[in-house]
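Trying the structure run again after the queue cleared.
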Amino acid sequence: MIKKLNYILTRRDKKFFIVLIVFSIFVSLIEVVGISAIMPFLSIAIDFNYIHTNEYLSKFYSLLDFKSDVDFILIFVIFLFLFYILRSGLNIYYTYLMAKFSQGRFHLIVYRLFENYMGMAYKDFVKKNSSNLTKSIVSEATNLSSLLSALLLLISELFIILFIYIMMLYVNYQVTLVLTLFLFINGFLVLKTISNRIKKHGINRSEILQNFYEVINKSFGNFKLIKLQTNDKLVLNEFSHSSHSFAKTNIIAQTLIQVPKFLLEAIAFGLIILLVLYMIWIYQSNISELIGILSMFILALYRLMPSVNRIISSYNNILFSYKSLEIIHNDLMYDNEILGKDNVSFNKEINIININFEYEKNKPILYNLNLKIEKNSKIAFVGESGGGKSTLVDIIIGLYKPIAGKIVIDGVELSDTNIRDWRTKIGYIPQTVYLFDGTVSQNVVFGNKYDENKIIRCLKQAKIYEFLSNKDGLNTIVGEGGIMLSGGQKQRIAMARALYTDPEILVLDEATSALDNETEAEIMDEIYDISRGKTLIIIAHRLSTVEKCDYIYKLKNGQIIYE
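Done. Tokens:
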């Protein structure tokens, strides 16, 4: 666990963690002083002569030259009152610091996760389940924050127990050792019988939560199909089963986590009774002289029990959340793309030289493929599904890397040092356009700098500005997934988005395949029009879609079989 946390936490986090541990030691010492002060206070309250018989109190009395015992007691009480106020303030501040550390790490962890996912190579990302990625960001990071909080609380309470235990040994080691034996045996039994079950439910929780997210995502993603098939009941039953399982495992875990508290409280009460009986039996004649010691032991046990309970609860919380630590650690171990900032110019041609590519070993998608694409030419790749069209284009635009061969732009090989700049030259219109629930302008800009004049120009080029003018203009809401628009209108928004960055290369990945023939023909005419002065690359099934291209290449089994 320490090794994984060491990888996840930053250098600054570790410094903060060490400061908290040091502060927890100081707070623990304050706790011990607070308990120790009760014994002389009660002894003085029972017998004022204790002021003069106690070595330390008598020296303090003489040093400050008190006039009477009452004055001394008054100052002592005021000091004790102020001390307990200070103790409470320090504990509140320490609790705040622990919350700041654990919950503050949530922000940093989810940011690192999201940054890592965004930094994945496209080839790696498409293999991931988006439900799992969402689960890690939303749920597993929250559980990891709880684990950090539990770890800090455990360390803090360990110091408190250690210092109180040393004090109890100093006052009466025989009684302390007997109490220790009782507590150790009961604590061991609790951990053995309960903690393993909690760890098991923690693993189950992660698996159930994964299914929970998958049910939600696929149901929302196929909402229209569900309504048409009128199988709401089946979906609700699947969700109910997943939700019920998640709730059940949390109920059991939370119950088990609280069991030690009640057991230890009963044990502590029994120990206090035994301690009183022991004192009465041993010191029958002068029990009043031991009221201070007895009270100190009772108060120490009273303070120890919550600490022991919090340690066991924190330990069980760590076990329950440990799977989250493993998941986040593994997700942060993904290799990200490390891309340079070199520029690459495209003034003449793209040369595709002996390209080989495979998704699975010894199962080639493309092999020994050669091709030249001239600047401002209009080319198309056609063929059956699985022929390698989209894969080839993804290699050309820099999303995939070939396992052999190279892409050369104006004599410069495409590599990690210049691929970032190359991607900025690409305008991409996919087959399935994802529009998020926002305005048209927000969907067109999509993370780029907002320029209203530029948005309007691109919408006019995409032949949709007039339609929007009859609605709310740039502020027209598209709905999640563009549900408020027709298929053709969504494609036009996608065209405007692709044009917004002024790309040199425009790529259409079967962008019109879902449209009717008339709409497709209309949009393709517009695409040919707006791609003047740009290189146009089209992936299509139908030849009618690409009849105005300069070159049409048919791919089959990873090879260009004719032009």
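Residues 349-562 form a domain with the Rossmann fold fold (CATH 3.40.50.300). Worth checking whether this holds up in the mutant runs.
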